[in-house]
Amino acid sequence: MSRSRLLDRAGETPGFESSAAAPVMVQIWNLHKSYGSNEVLKGIDLTVHRGEVVAVIGPSGSGKSTLLSCINFLEPFDAGEITVDGEPVGWVTSAEGRVRMGERQLNLMRQRIGIVFQQFNLFPHLTVLQNVIEAPIQVKGMAREQAVAIGRDQLARVGLRAKENAYPSELSGGQQQRVAIARSLAMDPKVMLLDEITSALDPELVGEVLSAVRALAEAGMTMIIVTHEMAFARDVSDRVVFMDAGTIVEQGAPEVLLTNPAHERTRAFLRRIIERSEAQSELTIGGA
Ligand code: ADP
Ligand code: MG
Q1: pLDDT of residue 2
Q2: Atom of ligand 1 lying closest to residue 67 CA
Q3: Low-confidence ranges of the chain (pLDDT < 50)
């Protein structure tokens, strides 16, 4: 079921407007980030409300991954400000101006922000359950028993409760990526950042991972999802943001942005995506 329809059932207006009433979860003001002389983010402003799912699309190199990395301060940004659930990310203002948070504060901050990448990076020598309970125990200092209970709940959420004793090498890529999602959820994040999490998967494994993400959306998780899966973006997100060359060109409800965008750059990008997927389906049909 699409998210918009769920919201309809709850008697709310679907999309952008309905979420605007919810409290702000992620606030980004005038975010700038350069690598050397390459300015990668050129003043990003973005507000994401609690429970909102925002899909970020755009050409390769437009700064999508850098944006997510700034939100949990994997990459220190040069200027601007980010808050998650009202708390500053990375930099704090003091009498001396802007100073980097201490490591302890940074760790606490990062615990509230789940991030899942294209490469799942599970520990190969640990079982599925051990992978999932590692951070709650090591980082949060949680009692093992409690971590196991939480870990099993989160594995059940992604349909992998039965695999808790398997090692990553015994799982498909789609299953490993679902474990990575469960591992992130076990830290009880306020927001989940997903960076092209299906891009490294064989096509037949994409669906099971997207279903797990859809279930999270329907459970009300706040998410920022970088994806090339346009049908998924349309189905699962409340809002689509189009980025190009380090700026947000436009954003809006998925059915508007993906079918009737205001900007030529957005139209050109969507045309290229459609051409590519048509070429792929011709290949598939030709090869069958
Ligand atoms: P996207 O995710 O949209 O493909 P990225 O955020 O990965 O884009 O990259 C945006 C730009 O930043 C690219 O020009 C890329 O080469 C550059 N970039 C990304 N990460 C680094 C890095 N660690 N060091 C130097 N340049 C980087
Ligand atoms: Mg990227």
Answers
A1: 45
A2: 6
A3: 1-19, 288
Ligand 1 centroid to Cα of residue 244, in Å, is 12
Q: Which atom of ligand 1 is nearest to the CA of 243?
A: 3
Does the beta carbon of 222 sit less than 6 angstroms from any atom of ligand 1?
no
Instruction: Give the count of beta carbons closer than 10 Å to the beta carbon of residue 179.
Output: 26
Pocket test of ligand 1: the residue of 41, 65, 225, 243 to mutate, having most ligand atoms within 8 Å of its CB, is 65
pTM above threshold 0.85: yes
Q: What pLDDT digit, counting tens, does each position of 5-43 carry?
A: 344 333 343 444 444 578 999 999 999 999 999 999 999
